[in-house]
Amino acid sequence: MNAIEVMVGQRRNPHLGGEMETQDSQLANLLITQGRLEEAKASLDRVEEECSRTARLLRDGRNLATLRVPEPLDGVDVPSLLASCAAACTDLGDVRVDCDADLPLAHGQADALKRLFVEILDNAFQFGAHNIQVSAKADRGQGTIRIEFRDDGPGVQLQPATLFESFVTSEPAEHSGLGLAIATQIAAAYDGAIGLDDSQDGAVFWARLPLASP
After folding, report:
1. For residue 42, how far is the Cα from the chain centroid?
2. What domains appear along the chain, each with residue ranges and CATH number?
3. Which residues in 165-178 are b (16+ Cβ under 10 Å) and which e?
4. Which of 56, 92, 103, 180 is deepest in the core (most CB within 10 A)?
5. CA dihedral sign of residues 87, 88, 90, 96
6. Is 125 in contact with 89 (CB distance < 8 Å)?
7. How would you write the pLDDT of the chain (214 residues) with one tens digit per residue?
8. pTM of the full structure
9. Distance of CA 41 to the CA centre of its chain
């Protein structure tokens, strides 16, 4: 099932708000004819919220369905890229970056990896984090770089097994649940991965990428 089919399924699922706009619109019309204007306004407010959510699902679903990850161009400077991501998130919260000295270059493409990192950072801020500590370490034996994102948020409420799937979110009224799915797709395109570690405080996400070819 592709992203668009999943998205349509969500709109048909009443537990996720699907097919509620028509019911609320009909209710609002009935309340207006009865002169119950305040109740009608509340019903129309719900219609507006659902329309906004539908538009967000359509936009984000289209972004996922049409995502094209560029071919890798070996030699991505992870510390510089993380510094750029931190600067892009200054209006959301504080991001501190601490990378190993002489960190090897990563396999991938800079713009795509930047989006991967920003999706993880943005997800943390959206769900309550104010500060994120980012670190990057190389495992030359495994030929990989591990980038860790440790935040001070409330932690993750969903099961890790489903967390990185499309449209999975603990707050469907506010979020489409696609940011981590996009990050997963980008990492996989470069033979990498993303995941979540157990943590007593906040959440600890990580991305693992291969080293660039020598």
Report:
1. 30
2. 3-65 (no CATH), 78-210 (3.30.565.10)
3. ebbbbeebeebbbb
4. 180
5. negative
6. yes
7. 444 343 434 444 433 444 444 565 666 566 577 777 777 677 666 666 666 656 655 565 555 555 566 676 768 999 999 999 999 999 999 999 999 999 999 999 998 999 899 989 988 998 889 999 999 999 999 999 999 999 999 887 766 666 777 555 545 445 455 778 889 989 999 999 999 998 888 999 999 999 998 7
8. 0.66
9. 33
Structure tokens at 24: 């609320």
Q: Is 122 helix (H, G, I), strand (E, B) or coil?
A: helix
The encoded tokens of residue 149 equal 């994102």
Pair of tokens at residue 72 = 């890798």
The two three-digit tokens of residue 165, written as one number = 């799937």
Single-letter code of the amino acid located at 27? L
Amino acid 72 reads: P
